[in-house]
Amino acid sequence: MTGYASAQRSAAPAGTGADAKAPAAHRLGLEIRSVNSRFLDLTFRLPDELRPFEPALRELLTAKLKRGKVEVRAALESASAGQLPEPSARLLQRLSSLQDNVRAWLPDARALSVADVLRLTTPDEPATTDLGDDLAALAKTAVKELMASREREGARLAGMIQGHVAQLRTLAAQAGPLVPQLVEQQRARFLERWKDAMALASKDAGTGAGATTLPEAAQDRALTEATAFAIRIDVAEELTRLASHLDEIERLATKGGEIGKRLDFLIQELHREANTMGSKSAALELTRISVDMKVLIEQMREQVQNIE
Question: Can you count the helices (H) and strands (E) in the chain?
Fold first, then answer.
């Protein structure tokens, strides 16, 4: 299922408490993208400072997600990045005095440049060894937002599935009355053939045994063919199983939870029943219904494979 979440957090300098008034040393950013996939595929794009925390992130995501191609991107930025230091006048005076002392002994020594002064007056960056807790809290926030996004997507998919189920029920209702009609039409055709055989037999009256056995043989043959035809095109069992599968799909779509694999199996069974109906079809209308069913089922399959 598709989803997107992002979160940012300021990380305090190492060694400061939660109530410390010291400015944040770093800013953490986390972005999670999820697209459709039948299986869970995790990809991490982390800076080197955050690589040690990848197993914890992986454990958090696998506990919450079951399907989807998920990409996790993290960024770590110094809070002072892009800011030039402002050395105090006392510090500049101290550097000037040190430079004069050095050049008194080494007259050929190069004078300090602006870049040298800025480098010497910039404090060292705080260590990043205490980022684990901040990253974990940030990840929990982002995963919660991602789950909410995927739940909204799941609600839309559930609505789509229920709409397709309703269309399949309508098609099944159209197919039900067709079978008795086809059986009756075929029985009438066989009866007509039997009457033709009777007429042929009456013309040949007086030829001996054939005059009495031909009509009986024709009648038995007509009844046998009518029975075989009725059995061959009977789709009552397929329609019953189809209705049962649709009931279960509606129940799961309403219930929610981890239903993706069960829905995937039920979609396969729906496709099997629709195929069987098409193979038993003895009329163009029943063939059309079978094709329409398979189109709807295939549309459901494409989405169901992405539902958890």
Answer: 9, 4
